[in-house]
Amino acid sequence: MLRVVAFNPAEGWSRDASEDIARELERRVASEGRELSDGLQDFIGPVRPEDRRAAGATAADLED
């Protein structure tokens, strides 16, 4: 699974931004009337919590 991690060294934090990026990609693709490419589907699918639950992810997995 591909993940996008946001870093802010000035404030000393990092976080998994994958879900935020996936949502924004879906929004932009939809607003332009385009279809998701296979590559974007591969990234977005496992990132969304509803898809991860459907794939059998546990509550602990969803906390990642």
Structure description:
By secondary structure, the protein is of the alpha+beta class. It has one domain (5-55). It has 4 helices and 2 strands, in the order E-E-H-H-H-H. The longest helix has 14 residues, at 18-31.
Note the gap between the termini: 12 Å
Unreliable stretches, pLDDT < 50, 5 or more residues?
A: 57-64
Number of helices: 4
Radius of gyration from the alpha-carbon trace, in angstroms: 13 Å
Lateral arrangement of strands in the main beta sheet: 1-2
Whole-number mean pLDDT = 79
**What share of the residues does DSSP label as strand, in percent?**
5-15%
How helix-rich are the residues, as a percent range? 40-55%
How would you name the oligomeric state of the polypeptide chains in this document?
single chain
The largest pleated sheet is described as: 2 strands, antiparallel
Series of secondary-structure elements, N-terminal to C-terminal? EEHHHH
The number of domains is 1
- Output the structural class: alpha+beta
Shape: elongated
Short description:
The chain has 64 residues and is of the alpha+beta class.
Secondary structure: elements and pairs:
Blueprint: E1 5-8, E2 13-16, H1 18-31, H2 38-47, H3 49-54, H4 59-62
Antiparallel strand pairs: 1-2
Features:
64 residues; alpha+beta; two-stranded antiparallel ribbon; elongated; disordered C terminus
